[in-house]
Design brief:
By secondary structure, this protein is α+β, with helices and mostly antiparallel strands. It is built from 11 helices and 18 strands. The chain folds into 2 domains: 198 residues, 3-Layer(bba) Sandwich (FAD/NAD(P)-binding domain), CATH 3.50.50.60; 225 residues, D-Amino Acid Oxidase, subunit A, domain 2 (D-Amino Acid Oxidase, Chain A, domain 2, 2-Layer Sandwich), CATH 3.30.9. Strand 12 and strand 13 form a beta hairpin. The C terminus is likely disordered. It holds the Pfam family DAO.
Length: 468
């Protein structure tokens, strides 16, 4: 399905099918026009049809329906991480507040927390405003701890947040949290050896359906979507008068030209923007999720109604259970296992790591306890996806240094459902006004990838929003 010869670093043509993609969406192989618009100068070419590309296209066309925008997708629509994640939509990186504050300062740390919470709220509002059928469920999210050391660190973060809220009313968060310790934590999350847990409002969903519907809404506004059309090269052409510069985008189906190019390519960005690849700042990795049936004794356990991150159990594991009335009702969607194998610098999502799959299938029974779980339920399916990471955990959002007209929103660190939609809003604001919104974290700017003094912040090992 790759549309031609496969280039290293680009999406492979034969990925595994994810749980969400078992029934392909009606626009999976959509092509708005039979051929590419090779004879016109477009306003924008967007590369990538995941949550970032879909949101950018929708937001640009909502501001100016006259724009000519072509979206190129290497495979089928939403076939990357957005269509193969764990289904979480939650603002969980408040856990990193102390690290952000110590490294970047209080204002910047608070900007990130606001962006994350606003992002999740914006997605929830978007789903409801447009009546999107994507199995969107409101529920409580929980982060759970089984070691006293990890729990003490979390309580310190909570204490710091409380202190800053007392000084700064603008620091109030949207997601009220509840804290449980000891037996109360064990009862709340169903994990016998839990020493502490924190809960707050969140959501789960079918992310593939969300993004495909977002693409449809952009199509209604004039987007030209071309699936199975990988981009092999993006180059800038500047005529002698320097007034009519344009970008040339080469694909196996022809070459198109645009005033601007927007990369929404996440883990595949290095293959297209080689200047960024030379910095080593963006690192792709393969992650994995499984779906299993619940154990014979656990049905009805209220802990299964949570979207749970197991922060010091395994290595950032996470799970939720498909709600009653949905396809796959009762299926446990369980991801993580990265401590078994950190598959870095990989862009191939056509393979399953058998060791990780074995762990993910057995992990729920281990965490809930064999007596509480009962006989192991059968494995439904395993799938994998490619995400990417930056040293400081933040995405790259804005215009490429020295490359006028080359924009991007990439590097979501496996946390795209809590950063990508708001990052798209920031990028569109910058493109259309020439200024950055006041709420935009300066730590998201692209220039830092070339600065040579990169801030390194360890990624929160928690159940992230994308589940990859």
């Amino acid at each position: 399905m790759g549309g031609g010869e496969h280039h290293p670093g680009l999406p492979v043509p034969n990925p595994v099918v994810s749980y969400w993609q078992v029934q392909p969406h009606r626009i999976a192989e959509h092509r708005t026009t039979p051929s590419l618009p090779t004879s016109e100068l477009l306003d924008f070419v967007i590369v990538g049809s995941g949550i970032s590309g879909a949101a950018i296209a929708y937001k640009l066309l909502s501001r100016d329906p006259s724009l000519s925008i072509l979206m190129l997708e290497a495979r089928t629509a939403a076939s990357g991480a957005s269509g193969r994640n764990g289904g979480h939509c939650r603002a969980g990186w408040w856990l990193n507040y102390k690290r952000y504050k110590d490294t970047l300062g209080e204002d910047e740390a608070l900007k990130f927390l606001r962006l994350e919470e606003d992002n999740v709220k914006d997605i929830a509002d978007f789903v409801r405003d447009h009546n999107i059928d994507c199995d969107f469920v409101d529920l409580q999210s929980a982060d759970t701890y089984v070691t006293e050391e990890a729990w003490a660190n979390v309580k310190e973060v909570l204490r710091m947040e409380e202190e800053v809220r007392e000084r700064r009313p603008d620091a109030a968060h949207r997601n009220p949290r509840k804290v449980y310790e000891g037996k109360a934590a064990q009862d709340r999350v169903g994990i016998p050896n839990a020493v502490g847990a924190v809960t707050w409002p969140a959501h789960v969903q079918n992310p593939y359906r969300l993004v495909c519907r977002m693409l449809e809404l952009a199509l209604d506004k004039g987007l030209n979507l071309q699936t199975n059309t990988p981009v092999h090269e993006v180059t800038q052409v500047v005529p002698d008068n320097r007034q009519l510069q344009k970008w040339v985008v080469k694909t196996p189906r022809g070459t198109v030209h645009a005033k601007g190019v927007i990369l929404a390519t996440n883990a595949y960005t290095n293959a297209i923007y080689t200047d960024l690849a030379t910095t080593g700042f963006l690192r792709p990795g393969r992650s994995q999720v499984t779906a299993v049936r619940p154990g014979s004794k656990v049905a009805g356990n209220p802990a299964l109604r949570l979207a749970t991150g197991l922060n010091d159990v395994g290595f950032g594991d996470y799970f939720h259970v498909r709600a009653p009335g949905l396809d796959g009702e009762g299926d446990v969607i369980y991801g993580g296992g990265r401590f078994i194998s950190r598959e870095e610098d990989i862009t191939d999502d056509s393979k399953i790591n058998d060791k990780i799959a074995t762990y993910l299938r057995q992990a729920p029974r281990q965490h809930f306890g064999r007596e509480n779980w009962g006989e192991q339920g059968k494995a439904v399916m395993d799938w994998t996806g490619i995400t990417c990471y930056t040293p400081d955990t933040f995405p790259l959002v804005g215009e490429a240094p020295g490359k006028k007209g080359l924009w991007m929103s990439v590097g979501m660190n496996g946390h795209g459902m809590a950063m990508a939609f708001r990052s798209a809003e920031a990028l569109v604001h910058i493109i259309t006004t020439g200024t950055e919104p006041e709420w935009f974290p300066r730590s998201f700017k692209l220039a830092r990838a070339w600065s040579g003094n990169t801030v390194h912040i360890s990624r929160p090992e928690t159940g992230n929003d994308t589940g990859l």
